[in-house]
Protein: Stage III sporulation protein AH
Amino acid sequence: MVLKRQTVWLLTMLSLIIVLSVYYISMDRMDKQAMEEEAEGHHGETADTGEDQENQNLNLFDDDELTYIEIEEIDDIDDFSSLYSGVDSVSEMFDVIRLQRQDSRSKMREDYRAVIESVEATAEIKSEAFDKHENLYTLQQKEESLETLIKSKGYEDALVIAEDDTLKVYVKADELTKEETVEIMMLSYDHLGIEDIRVGFQSDKN
Structure:
């Protein structure tokens, strides 16, 4: 009798083990399938999001807002025309303008330092001069960094000029597409946070 009970108990346990094994195998397969479907869905969603973002970027600017201009037409560039009138390439022109800009800002920083070191200036005025001095230095670093970033996108040369709340970006190119212009605008906004951006291109002079 005892042997029969043990046999029945053993068979019951074996049946239970078999059922549980099948259950866990099925659940494991279902979990894997669910994870694969979720991964595929996430990948598709990411791809869609990327396409949507690209389309959204293209729609940020109307065609009328895209600036395709010759660099000589810009007022602040025209001030330097006598300096680069004899240069033979766009890159040389950009270099001349950069040097002029650097000299101008160096003088501004000297003026700020003079205020900071003045014994007559109040603490408030000195603090304001110090902030302007540091902001001017930071701005120049960001301009140079953005120029390098834009050139890494395949442009032979780039010139960035930030004045007040306006950012002007010029690249050495024969032409610019809308997609290329928007890309430059987005890079510029991400780098400097200025919303009023004008993009122009300049080809080598004949």
Remarks:
- The helical segments are 2-59, 75-78, 81-84, 90-117, 123-151, 178-192.
- The chain has two domains: 1-59, 63-202.
- Residues 1-59 form one domain.
- Strands lie at 158-163, 166-172, 196-202.
